[in-house]
Design a protein that fits this description.
single chain; 305 residues; alpha/beta; 6-stranded mixed sheet; 4-stranded antiparallel sheet; 10 helices; binds adenosine-5'-triphosphate; transport
């Protein structure tokens, strides 16, 4: 497990990380979400050791994090950093060689990874001839080339089409299943909701919530209910103690305390057969808005990157 404890960091006297504590378990995909300027990249760069923390501790599997453990880290930075004129497969082979693979191992590894990422037709093209989404796949291949033990990805899904999202997801899931730590930041909450097992929400340099995705959905956000009946439900809108979010003749989605919801159910049963009454868990976007409304002026959907 990768653990950060009370990490602080300031730039020119302005504190941007405030006692950041988080953990990412082996075998799981951990999503790291927050609005613009929340502190995701700074945190990731500190994990990687390219930026120093002012204070705090970092551990991998209980041991203080040092350069030896970091040599098994893979990183995909948000600012892409490959050689535009170099051919795609050549580039990944070159990186594999730098990590100590023999020439034939490096070639095989490059071709396998790029094929897995859907780029088998583009191996001999220079990077700059590829679309931005495809260049990003190459960047992901670069972060994976040395079979990292801990994979840190800054916005790996931004700019990818749904097909590419699935390809990258398969690669990351496979990586996590092999026992690696996989931590990725993202603005795309729908993608994160679908992909990650665990979630960390950061706002204004502070960790706002963290844990198992489903657990977070159960614990946070406003609980809503769905009620459906064969009978007309138009009376529901005027029922005390509830607020309707959606309403048709035979189906409503409403917010209420549990006691008011139960009362409404009883009233509905007396008026006709109830065909459905279920709690509706909040989406990740709703939870994120609840948490960040106070702390981050910019919602991720408004991000331009
Ligand atoms: N080198 C730096 N010098 C000064 N301030 C910095 C530096 N790097 C980051 N910051 C500031 O730290 C804060 C956190 O930035 P960071 O890039 O970590 O946020 P982020 O969550 O990755 O945002 P985004 O989603 O917009 O990329 C911001 O206020 C940013 O301006």
């Amino acid at each position: 497990m990768l653990e950060l404890q009370d990490i602080c960091r300031s730039f020119s006297g302005k504190q941007v990380l405030h006692d950041v504590s988080l953990s990412a378990e082996r075998g799981k995909l951990t999503g790291f979400v927050g609005g613009n300027g929340a502190g995701k990249t700074t945190t990731m760069r500190i994990i990687l050791g390219v930026l120093a923390a002012d204070s705090g501790h970092m551990r991998l599997d209980g041991a203080e994090l040092g350069s030896q453990a970091r040599s098994r880290f893979g990183y995909m930075p948000s600012e892409r950093g490959l050689y535009p004129k170099m051919k795609v497969a050549e580039q990944i082979t070159y990186l594999a060689r730098l990590h100590g693979y023999s020439k034939s191992e490096a070639t095989t590894r490059a071709v396998d990874l790029l094929t897995q990422l859907g780029l088998s037709e583009r191996l001999k093209d220079p990077l700059e001839a590829l679309s931005l989404g495809n260049q990003q796949r190459v960047q992901i291949a670069a972060s994976l080339v040395h079979e990292p033990d801990v994979l840190i990805l800054d916005e790996p899904f931004s700019g990818l089409d749904p097909f590419a999202v699935d390809l990258v997801l398969n690669v990351l899931t496979e990586k996590a299943a092999s026992g690696a730590v996989v931590l990725f930041s993202s603005h795309q909450l729908d993608v994160v909701e679908r992909l990650c097992d665990d979630l960390i929400i950061i706002g204004d340099g502070k960790i706002l919530a963290a844990g198992d995705r489903e657990d977070l959905r159960r614990r946070h956000g406003t609980l809503r209910y769905e009620l459906a009946s064969d009978a007309d439900l138009s009376w529901v809108q005027n029922h005390s103690g509830i607020r309707t979010d959606e309403a048709t003749e035979n189906r409503v989605i409403f917010r209420a305390e549990e006691s008011a919801a139960q009362q409404l159910l009883q009233d509905a049963v007396q008026r006709g057969p109830v065909t459905r009454f279920v709690p509706v868990l909040p989406t990740l976007s709703e939870i994120f808005r609840d948490f960040t409304n106070d702390s981050a002026p910019t919602l991720p959907q408004e991000a331009t990157r």
